[in-house]
C-alpha cells in the first residue's frame, strides 16, 4: 500500500490549556478553517472541555479525543477517568503514553498497554505515543527504545484492533522546545515503527497504519515533514492552540 492510501490525520493535543469557554471559542474559529480538510482532524482536549467540544463539533469534520484514560472500568482510583466514561460522553479518540505522562506521572510501557487495551475494549480509538529522550538519541538507541515502547504497548492487541490505532512518534527532545526532528529523522523512525508493525502483524497491517510525527510541528515545517513516505500526519501541541496555525497544518496534509 502506498502512503496515499493511508489515512492522513492531524490531531491537536491541547495539553492543559483552555477551559470550556476558551475551548468553545477556539473550536468556533477552527470549524470554518478546517471544513474543507482533506485529512482526518482530531482535537484532544482537557477532560473538562470534552462535553463542550463534542457539542461544538457536532455536524463538523472535527473529531474529539481525550488525553488519557484509566485501565480499570471503575473503582477506587481518585481523580481518574475510565475509557467507558469517555465513550459514554461521546469521545472517539484518546491519546495514550504521551511523554509528559511518562515523564511527570510515572507512566510506564506496561500501564500504557493496560490503558490501551481498556480503551479498545470500550470502543475508543487510541493515539499511542512513543519516542526517545535526547540522551537515548545521543546514545544511538532510538530504534531500540521506540521498538520496545511499541511492542510492549501493543501486547495482546490483535491485527483487527490495530485498525483502530494511530501511532504518534514524538521525540521527547522535540516537544515544546522549538527543536523539530528533521524530516529525514522523523521519516526514519516512523519507518522503523512500521517495520515493528510488519513483524507483529504482517505487511498489510503495517502499511495501513497511520503513523504521525509530533514535536514542534508548525505551519513552516509541516509540509516537509508530512511529505515523507512514512509520516502520515501530525500530533500538534502548541500550534494546535491557534486556529490559523492548526488549519495551516491541516492544509499542508493535503
Ligand atoms: P509541541 O507541538 O508543542 O512541540 O507538542 C507536541 C506534542 O507533545 C503533541 O502531543
Describe this protein's structure.
This protein has a single domain, classed as TIM Barrel. Helices cover 45% and strands 15% of the residues. The protein contains twelve helices and eight strands. It has an eight-stranded parallel barrel with strand order 1-2-3-4-5-6-7-8, surrounded by six helices. Helix 11 links the parallel strand 7 and strand 8. The chain is globular. The chain binds 1,3-dihydroxyacetonephosphate. The site of 1,3-dihydroxyacetonephosphate has 14 residues, from strand 8.
SSE topology sketch:
Blueprint: E1 9-13, H1 20-34, E2 40-44, H2 50-57, E3 62-66, H3 83-89, E4 93-96, H4 99-104, H5 109-122, E5 125-130, H6 134-138, H7 142-153, H8 159-162, E6 166-169, H9 183-201, H10 203-208, E7 211-214, H11 219-226, E8 233-236, H12 243-252
Parallel strand pairs: 1-2, 1-8, 2-3, 3-4, 4-5, 5-6, 6-7, 7-8
Helix pairs in contact: 1-2, 1-12, 5-7, 7-9, 11-12
The structure holds 1,3-dihydroxyacetonephosphate.
Task: Sum up the structure in keywords.
TIM Barrel; 45% helix; 254 residues; eight-stranded parallel β-barrel; binds 1,3-dihydroxyacetonephosphate; alpha/beta; 12 helices; 8 strands
Give the class from helix and strand content and strand pairing: alpha/beta
In quaternary terms, these chains amount to single chain
Order of helices and strands: EHEHEHEHHEHHHEHHEHEH
How much strand?
Answer: 5-15%
What is the architecture at the second tier of CATH? Alpha-Beta Barrel
Shape: globular
Percent of residues in helices: 40-55%
Amino acid at each position: 500500500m502506498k502512503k496515499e492510501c493511508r489515512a492522513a490525520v492531524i490531531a491537536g493535543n491541547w495539553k492543559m490549556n483552555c477551559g470550556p469557554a476558551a475551548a468553545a471559542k477556539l473550536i468556533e474559529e477552527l470549524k470554518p478553517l478546517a471544513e474543507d480538510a482533506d485529512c482526518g482532524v482530531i482535537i484532544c482536549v482537557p477532560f473538562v472541555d470534552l462535553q463542550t467540544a463534542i457539542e461544538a463539533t457536532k455536524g463538523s469534520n472535527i473529531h474529539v479525543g481525550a488525553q488519557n484514560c484509566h485501565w480499570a472500568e471503575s473503582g477506587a482510583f481518585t481523580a481518574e477517568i475510565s475509557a467507558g466514561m469517555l465513550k459514554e460522553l461521546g469521545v472517539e479518540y484518546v491519546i495514550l503514553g504521551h511523554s509528559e505522562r511518562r515523564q511527570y506521572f510515572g507512566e510506564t510501557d506496561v500501564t500504557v498497554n493496560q490503558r490501551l487495551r481498556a480503551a479498545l475494549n470500550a470502543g475508543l480509538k487510541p493515539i499511542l505515543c512513543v519516542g526517545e529522550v535526547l540522551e537515548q538519541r545521543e546514545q544511538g538507541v532510538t530504534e531500540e527504545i521506540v521498538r520496545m515502547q511499541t511492542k510492549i504497548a501493543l501486547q495482546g492487541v490483535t491485527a483487527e484492533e490495530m485498525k483502530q490505532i494511530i501511532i504518534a512518534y514524538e521525540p521527547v527532545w522535540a516537544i515544546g522546545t522549538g527543536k523539530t526532528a528533521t524530516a529525514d529523522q522523523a521519516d526514519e523512525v516512523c519507518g522503523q515503527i512500521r517495520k515493528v508493525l510488519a513483524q507483529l502483524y504482517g505487511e498489510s497491517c503495517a502499511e495501513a497504519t497511520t503513523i504521525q510525527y509530533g514535536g514542534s510541528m508548525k505551519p513552516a515545517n509541516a509540509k516537509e515533514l508530512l511529505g515523507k513516505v512514512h509520516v502520515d500526519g501530525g500530533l500538534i501541541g502548541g500550534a494546535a492552540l491557534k486556529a490559523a496555525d492548526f488549519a495551516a497544518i491541516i492544509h499542508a496534509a493535503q
